[in-house]
Structure formats: structure tokens, C-alpha cells
Amino acid sequence: MPLEKLIDNIESAWAIWKITESETQLSDKINSIDRVPESVTNPFKRLEYLAGRVVIKKLLENWSLQYEGLVKDEFGKPYLKNFSFHISLSHSYPYVAAVINQKFAVGIDLEQPKEKLLRIGPRVLNQQELQDAGIDIVKHCIYWCSKEALIKIYGKKDLMLAKNLAIEPFSIQKQGSITGRIIVGSNETLVKLNYHVSDNFVVVHN
Questions:
Q1: Under CATH, what is the fold of the domain 110-205?
Q2: Which of 7, 30, 57, 194 has its CA 20 to 30 A from that of 63?
């Protein structure tokens, strides 16, 4: 079954979907409510687009609610039609992750640990984070996902990963909690993040 995981915490829930379906099969699962834009031509991106909506639909159905589609704001942040809930999506083919919260802004990011994270590390991590991550690709992946989740919580795209977002050092485990900070001018917001490490991917969410 493509639904890899679904965790419900009453007012918040998150899930991971593994894509095994065709584009038509995914579209049928949401009754063609959302159609892939013609500008999206990459076949894998088209599958990710639809699968993200399928997993959001599953999260709503878990609360006995009906999915009616998604819209995006000027910053590309997704919102549900006819619900005031907060949502966030992430994808790294063939996996798609989503989180939904009835009251608070949320962010989720899923990535597959790859060598490129070591190369881009100096551009996205501060010196303390770089020293803590070392050459551990999985730890670099947790840092990367954490910062991407923070951006989604903030909801705008004017943040610099190394400057405006900070993650406290941590000891890596299969799952755990870490503290993130969103720093904008003199304002600093602390965010508790949860991470999960599987054999194939890392996912971080609040």
C-alpha cells in the first residue's frame, strides 16, 4: 500500500506516501479535483504534484473530512479550499510527505541523503552546524530538512539558510526532537522540530 505512515496527534497529523501509481491512477484518487498544470512537463514532477494532494486527502479523511482542493498564495504556500487548517508538503520521488494542523503554521521536508549535501553544506549551514554535521551525510540531511521546514513555517521566501535559520547541535538517532530558530532582524522565533530517519529518507516536521 502506498501509504507508508500516518501519525495522528488529534489537532495535527502527518503522513508519507510512496508513489507506485500512474498519473491517471493518482488523479482518480482525488476525483480529478486538482489537475497538473500544463507547465509541469517532467513526468516525475507530475506524479509528485498529484501524490501530494492524495496524501492531504488521506489526512482529511482520517478526520472524516472531505478534500476539496488546494490553492497557493503569492509565495507558493499551499492552502486548503474551504478549510482554515495549515498544511505543508514535501516530495523526493518516489516519496511524498504532508502535515496538517488545525491551529498553527506547519512545515515538513523529506529528502533522501545524497553526497551533494556535503558539497552545498557550506552555503546553507553556519559554522557551528557545519562542525556538528561533519561528514555525516544523514546528519547533513537532517539539518537541510530542518531549515526547509522552518522556511515553510515562516511562509515567505526571503530568508537566507545560513543567516536567518539556525539549528541547535544534536546527537543523531532514528528519531528525535531538535530546536530551530527563525531569525529576522531583532526577532527570533524558537521552533521545536521532530525528525525521523528511515533506510531511504529523512523527514523533519513541527
A1: Nuclear Transport Factor 2; Chain: A, (3.10.450)
A2: 194
